[in-house]
Design brief:
Layout lengths: L3 E4 L8 H8 L2 H17 L8 E5 L2 E8 L2 E10 L3 E9 L7 H18 L3
Parallel strand pairs: 1-5
Antiparallel strand pairs: 2-3, 3-4, 4-5
């Protein structure tokens, strides 16, 4: 059974991961969309080189075209949902802490809004 991939949406209706994907050039966007499809098909069984757990339930999806590397961060939610939070172009060896913290903040916001009556 496939997983359902969704974009995290701020209260302002912005969708940071979607906006990031739309900002990518055609080749990189196509590569990342292929990787999202792999995630949808494989869920928590998707591993390196496509996906990696970073910290505290935050994962990263990886796409590379030539020397350009992009990442989209995500987390799992109930009922086989995967929520894409934010993305960035990777310029250093390690994933920037601020991107991970942003994903955690978005996840907290998502959970708080979901679990309020």
């Amino acid at each position: 059974m496939k997983f359902q991939v969704e974009f995290y949406e701020k209260e302002s209706k912005e969708q940071p991961a979607k906006e990031f994907l739309l900002s990518l050039d055609k080749k990189m966007r196509a590569k990342m969309m292929d990787t999202i499809t792999l995630l949808q098909d494989n869920g928590n069984n998707l591993r390196k080189p496509y996906s990696e757990h970073l910290s505290d339930g935050i994962f990263e999806l990886r796409a590379k075209v030539g020397s350009d590397i992009s990442r989209v961060l995500y987390f799992f939610y109930v009922d086989r949902k995967i929520i894409l939070t934010n993305g960035f172009i990777k310029k250093t060896q390690k994933t920037p802490r601020k991107e991970i913290e942003l994903a955690k903040k978005y996840r907290m916001d998502y959970l708080n809004r979901r679990e309020k009556p």
